[in-house]
Amino acid sequence: MESGSLLIGGAWVDAHGANRENVTSPFDGSTVGTVAVAGVDDATRAIDAALAGFEKWKRTPAHERFAILTRAAALADDRAPEIARIIASENGKSLLEAQGEAGRSGDIIRLAAFEGSQLYGDSLPLDANRGTGFDKIGFTLRQPVGVVVAISPFNYPALLVLHKLAPALAAGNAVVLKPARATPLTALALAKCFQDAGLPDGVLNVITGPGGVIGDTLVRDRRVRKVSFTGSTAVGEHIASIAGIKKLSLELGASGPVIVLDDADIDAATTSIALGGYINAGQVCISAQRIIVHEKIAADFLDALTPKVKAIRVGDPFADDTKVGTLISRAEADRVTASIRAAVESGAKLVTGGEQEGTVIQPAIVANVDPYSPFAQDELFGPAVAISTARDVAHAIELANSTAYGLGAGVFTNNMSNSIRAIREIESGVVHINWTQLWRADLMPYGGFKSSGIGKEGPRSAIEEMTEVKTVIMHGTPWTTP
Ligand code: NAD
To answer: Which residues form the domain of 24?
Structure first.
């Protein structure tokens, strides 16, 4: 059983009042470990420690930061099997998926370490500005913002923590991390990699506990210069309303569209959708939730998709043949089942799946979905796809853009003009041609439009957003050449 404390100022400490809680398996309710439950005092203590850590870290040369981060990456590689076990235990995803996630940790840290060593500036052609001559030199200097608060969700407890920590630290910032309440043990195991790699005390602080209690303290504090949040749109909106004057990155919810046009390769499209709609039990912000199929091919498409979805083995995360594990909690599984039922009651057709046993839901296909109904418009975050039809490419794009969200989109077509039209007109932070949106290379810019958020992650983009640009002008005196 894992036992976690808070990491504050380089020490593993109890919460104020020594409060603790169990972390449980979503599959069978067994206790996976215990963690400290931080309160408001602990949040303030963590920010104090981060400020002290930043004073050291901002004066640490980039090559030393790079060396420490690459050591942390090697430790994350070594510990990947153990981290995968922790992810599957506390999150409920299959060990197979957890291994894939944990296996990316070292690479994310290395990519960020490299980008953190590339904080270039620009030289300014000041003499192009009338009234300014060669007696001045201007340039920009990229510097860390200071203390970054990182708040992460449950669904990818390693990946989404590292997409914040690694760039923040690589760029010279200090961090206070608040991982999801359901999945704190993964975050603590990753933090240990950084501590064991020689990160100075206070540069990384981790506090575990209820976001609703400690979140406001972390977000409001004026000494915090950046909040990097991944989670629901509702909490993101709350954070935006109280953060005050500081940098904000918000990676929020979605209801991701996939367009399948009448010239698409149906076999390729259905293979990709049978992954993209169900990986992580659909609990992915870039899940393929709404499938918008050209009406001419709708019947063939459904015939091809159904057996592929029926073949997905769900259940015990640690069983050898399990591809997809559980939802994060019974309440979430009940919510997804209720959404499927409501869609069917209002005229949609359940083609397969939807049976719920505890936190496990059989992968579902719901056809004849009204594209403007809540089942399509709202984020489902569960293992089901909603199928609607479109008359032509213009109608398909109109439906794709019809929700409040805009994170990822997929388009299946073999027509180049339709691809280009979709790329230009879909309102979405990422567009994939001939794959669903459930695909991510860790180095690419990643973030949503509209209610899916503001800002971009991916090491290079995140570092840009976790640094400030200082403009420097050196004033000399004019000289004359003899
Ligand atoms: P959530 O919003 O409930 O929680 C996310 C984090 O915010 C947790 O650490 C939680 O403790 C904390 N939190 C809760 N209340 C807070 C408050 N008042 N102030 C500060 N922090 C608070 O989200 P979740 O259920 O963990 O994750 C699912 C959501 O995350 C989905 O909507 C999903 O789409 C979204 N998500 C988005 C992306 C992306 O890249 N856009 C990636 C993964 C997940």
So the answer is: 6-252+452-470
441 belongs to a structural domain = no
pLDDT digits (tens, 9 = 90+) for 356-411: 999 999 999 999 999 999 999 999 999 999 999 999 999 999 999 999 999 999 99
CATH value at residue 268 = 3.40.309.10
Nearest alpha carbon, ligand 1 atom 39? 251
Give the confidence band of 1 by pLDDT, cuts at 50, 70, 90. confident
**Within a domain: 446:** no
Residue 102 and residue 192 in one domain:
yes
Give the residue, by CA position, lying nearest to ligand 1 atom 26.
153
pLDDT at 255 over 90: yes
Other C-beta atoms closer than 10 Å to the C-beta of 152 total 28
Same domain flag for 284 and 212: no
Cβ 448 under 6 angstroms from ligand 1: yes
Ligand 1 proximity of 236 Cβ (cutoff 6 Å): no
pTM of the model: 0.97
Distance between CA atoms of residues 337 and 340, nearest Å: 5
* Strand-by-strand arrangement of the 31-36 sheet: 2-4, 31-36, 20-24
- 244 and 367 together in one domain: no
230 with 278, same domain? no
β-pair type (247-251, 349-352): unpaired
Ramachandran angles phi, psi of 141, nearest 5°: -125, 130
CATH number at residue 137: 3.40.605.10
92 lies in some domain: yes
Ligand 1 near 163 CB (within 6 A): no
pLDDT in tens, 43-55: 999 999 999 999 9
How far, in Å, is the centroid of ligand 1 from the Cα of 241?
16
233 CA to centre of ligand 1 in angstroms: 8
H or E segment and range at residue 356: strand 356-357
Residues found in the chain: 482
pLDDT for 285-304, tens place per residue? 999 999 999 999 999 999 99
Same structural domain, 96 and 234: yes
pLDDT reported for residue 167: 98
For the chain, the average pLDDT equals 98
| Secondary structure class of 283 (helix, strand, coil) | coil
Q: What backbone phi and psi angles, to 5 degrees, belong to 446?
A: -145, 120
Co-location of 270 and 165 in the same domain: no
Report the pLDDT averaged over residues 444-473.
98
**Number of domains composing the chain:** 2
Domain presence at residue 444: no
317 lines ligand 1 (CB under 6 A): no
Integer-rounded Cα radius of gyration of the chain: 24
Does pLDDT of 204 surpass 90? yes
